[in-house]
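Batch job 17 of 40 flagged for manual review because the log was empty.
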Amino acid sequence: MPTLPLVFECGFEDGTLGAFDAETDTESKLSFPHYSLLAKTMPYPTAVPYRGAYAMHINLALGAADAYVQENTGFDTAAPGLVALRMYFWASGLTMAASDRFTIAILESAGPVGEAAISVLNNAGTIQLIFAQTGATAVGATTRGTDLIQNQWHCLEIVSVINAGAGTITAFVDGYQLGAAITTLTNAALTQARFGAIDIDVGTTAGHLLFDDIAGDTVRVGPLSRRFSDQR
């Protein structure tokens, strides 16, 4: 069970990057809109924050430059150690060329070097979520994947053991584990985390992404037990 309070938690409820340390967005495609603005401007009835009044939104049609928020301390983990990254993710209208891929969440060591990541891939016409050590890891034995259902919120979680030669990555989607853990990884101490659209291929020309309720801890976080609280 996770500790309370969590080591890191952000739901963008102040309409800004909130608890995150920095934002990179040279093409102005990343924002933190109120649900009323999403309801007026998005052509998808499910395009509302997962919980609360705000979410992070990225419009991929505005360019291929990276757009992300960065956390410099909340996910830091020395070896040997364990870190969990949990977030809610929604996507719709994705237009991606075959084999196009971009990263939506990544834990990084100094460099930066990817140590655990979640990416979106057009796998021969099927849009998939891929969990791996980096957003460029070839799909195969060292990745875990599942088809991405668009227009629907998903709880995505990575639980990673940081340890040279004995590191692991365990992937969860909507509370269910994807296969066995990826094992025998060599990974270094984590120094930052990024969430957004990173390393976008030029063939990816459209799509809307929403991020909400990003959390981190030293044990698995898991999905929220209730989407909406009893108190208003």
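Reviewer: the log was empty due to a logging misconfiguration, but the result itself is present. The mean pLDDT is 95. Unflagging and moving on to job 18.
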